Amino acid sequence: MSETESPAFETVLYEVSDRVATVTLNRPEVHNALSFQLRTDIVNALRHAEQDPDVSLVLLKGAGRSFCAGYDLRVSGSVEERRNQLIGGATTSKQHTAVRMHLHTPARPSTCSMRRV
Prior knowledge:
The chain has helices at 36-51, 79-87, 90-104, and strands at residues 12-17, 20-25, 57-62, 110-113. It is globular. Helix 1 links the parallel strand 2 and strand 3. The protein is of the alpha/beta class. The chain has a single domain, classed as 2-enoyl-CoA Hydratase, Chain A, domain 1, CATH 3.90.226.10. The relative contact order is 0.21.
């Protein structure tokens, strides 16, 4: 994938430059709190980076003042989405495991960029 081609995600910015894939959590209005969609986008962005032969390193960072505030406890969406978010349905559990696996046993080295307080 060339530097000009990047996949589109709803809540994550993704770009590759100089063999570094930068994955930016892009919900600064809520301090990048982990919504269902953001967790889905993180997993998909990390999977994309793992499959890209032009990527040697993944940099994970947050837009705005915060890296990540943790889980987003505000629930919205369809009844099924709310149920999955509130009771930790199978989809949410699989997402959590997928994010952990990609960050703790990555196919590419990864690092995070956080602001100092």
